[in-house]
Amino acid sequence: MRLNDALLGAILLGFAGWVWWMTTFFPAFPGQDYGPNLFPRILACGIALCGAMLVLRGLRQRAPLVAVDGWMRDPAKLVSFLLIPGATLFYVLASDRLGFIPTAFAILLALALWFRARPLVALPVAAGVTLAVHWFFSGLMRVPLPRGLMDPLL
Amino acid sequence: MDALIQAFGLVFDPSVLVVILLSAVFGMFVGAMPGLTATMATALLVPVTFFMPPIPALGAIVTATAMAIFAGDIPAAMLRMPGTPASAAYADESYEMTKKGQLNLNMGVNLVFSVAGGLVGVVVLIAAAPALAEVAINFSSFEYFWLACLGLTCAVFLTNADAVKGFLSLFLGLLLATVGIDPSAGFPRFTFGEVELMQGINFIATMIGMFAVSELLRGAVTVRDAGHVVVQQVGDMFRGLGAVWRRYWFNFLRGSVIGTVIGALPGAGADIAAWISYAVSKRFSKEPEKFGTGHVEGIVDSTSANNSALGGAWIPALVFGIPGDSITAIVIGVLYMKNMNPGPTVFTENPQLIYSVFLIFILANLIMLPLGWAAIKSARQMLRTPRNLLLPCILLFCIVGSFAMTNSLYGVVLMLVMGLFGWFLEEHGIPVAPLILGLVLGEMLEQTFVQSMIKADGHYLEFFARPIAGVLGVATLLIWGVMLARGIMRSARR
């Protein structure tokens, strides 16, 4: 997926304006000429400049407003792509309640099966990797991975 | 001298050696798998090394990256798929050699010259870093300001991408670095009242997102229709190497020196070193017509260059705290986490740390010879690892790694956002490396800039008054001028 340079530039101009507007709320300190707003403002100007140049370039090119790659029209490939953020979001939403082990196992198994791994291979790999990661991070390195449903067992 | 003995004791501790060996195997594997890069190996290693003392943590990173850069050559020759971007420059050439039946020689050349090139990079690092540190000890905010500017400018200048997009990426990175408590007045900026954002954007979660998750997004699209990989077995890879040495020793030296210098320039790493030294090799070759037909000459240059670049990149990282490439950008993040702020004072206060890094570098390059040999011999099995199982596992490592960096879901969310953002940027031809450099250097740049502005008090010539600051400042302005002129000429031609 590719936005036209002009559209991308326009978004950046808007973003730079928002950054500048945010800096107007930063406090000034009497007797101190260079406060917390100086550097972000310079950067906002830089981003705006890049945005303006992209707008100029985009208007000359006449590319479509949004160009979509071939694979995005293939539903299976689109699902493969969306599964990566989807699985991560699932972890964010479910791991506290379910616990690390069930969540990680579900993610590994679902992804591997969707990517056409054989169930007889995917099952032991998902289980083994989940337990190994849990042992290493939770056991060895004392990372507080969520226990969730497994709390009584662990 | 005491420090050197101490360093020996630190590095040759059995547990450190085990960590080095394990990370070497890990690096070999990640480097040899197409689509998994050396930077990704580093980003995934950091959460694992987070709880280790500094020496094994640094040892793991140095070893894994050195192995990964070499191992990238293996699938380049066998499958025409570079294992890491650093091998892309000569993947076609290597594959042509394989087609001519010279896979054995090709693997031997790649292995031996990677080791030798890596050692040249280390020698330069050992010679240059302490000397530079002695100069740097007298630097004031003006020098550091210009050094940071010059480094960031180089990062844009060297990335082949167009300058507007390079600078855009850089500004976005610097802006991300302003999130959190500001260094001059202690005011929380762009935090929206979130406590997690007060400490700033977590650097490692960002790196994992930008370098690993965005790669997974690209890989996920093709993983379902990946076919089976057929790879030849490699025989005696050391036969015929002597002749290559005698004939192309100058190419080796030239490639290693170019690699080290490019590695030392901020923002450009092993991949650009390989491209440039391959081009130089072709330009000055006596038989340039043979390039592209499976000719070993260009490979000698560039396979030496990408490994020597690794050592070179550590020079500015250790001396000034300015990363030479995206791998050392992560290293600087690690050093800060371990409360060992890189800079010239490390050389006087913690010399045993510096010597340990040198020792690990030498050790890593030496064990590359047997381990690389083993990796080439087992390439058939390694390259058959099914990607449909590997991809989900890497995603899980990313999630757990980011979680471990913050001990909260904030890290995971940040990783996801940055992964999608990094993917979006690359889709638009906007390079990610300047952004990462901006994020690492943002605080230093702002701090030295504001300090210098206060010192100068409106007299802007003060920025050029000290001799080294003057030279650095003029050099930075010159590069800006060249880039501006190039841009104007390009748009006038259209």
Automatic annotation (TrEMBL), chain A:
| Pfam families documented for this protein | TctB
Does the keyword field hold Iron-sulfur?
no
UniProt keyword list = Membrane, Transmembrane, Transmembrane helix
Q: Where does the sequence pass through the membrane?
A: 7-26, 38-56, 76-93, 99-115, 120-137
- Tell me which residues make up the DUF1468 domain: 7-146
Name by which UniProt lists this protein: Tripartite tricarboxylate transporter TctB family protein
Can you name the source organism?
A: Falsiroseomonas bella
Q: What is the lineage of its organism?
A: Bacteria, Pseudomonadati, Pseudomonadota, Alphaproteobacteria, Acetobacterales
Automatic annotation (TrEMBL), chain B:
Domain (DUF112): give its ranges. Answer: 17-437
Coiled coil ranges (UniProt) are none
Can you tell me where the transmembrane regions are? 7-30, 50-71, 109-132, 144-160, 167-185, 197-217, 313-337, 353-376, 388-421, 463-485
Q: Specify the protein name.
A: C4-dicarboxylate ABC transporter permease
Identify the keywords attached in UniProt to this record, alphabetized: Membrane, Transmembrane, Transmembrane helix
Q: Name one Pfam family in it.
A: TctA
Keyword Transmembrane on entry: yes
InterPro entries, A to Z: DUF112_TM
